[in-house]
Amino acid sequence: MSDFDLVLAGTVVLPDLILDHGYVAIRDGKIVHVGEGTPPHAHERHELGDALILPGAIDAQTHSLSQRDQEDFIWSTRSAAAGGVTTIVDMPYDEGNLVASADAVRSKVAHAQPQARVDFALYGTVVPEEGASRIAEQVAAGVAAFKFSTFGTDPVRFPRIPAALLEECFAAIAPTGLTAGVHNEDDEAVRAAMARVKALGITDFRAHGLSRPPLTELLASLQIYETGAATSCPAHVVHCSLGRGYDIARSYREQGFAATIECCIHYLTLDEENDVARLGGKAKINPPIRLRAEVEELWEHVRAGNVTMVSTDHVSWSENRKTNPDMLANASGVPGLEVMVPLFIKGALERDIPLTWAAKLMAENPAKHFRIDHAKGALSAGKDADITVLFPRPKRYDAAESGHNVVGWSPYNGIELPWTVGLTYLRGQQVFDGTNVGEPGFGRFVRPEVGA
Question: Are strands 259-264 and 235-237 parallel, antiparallel or unpaired?
Answer without folding.
Answer: parallel
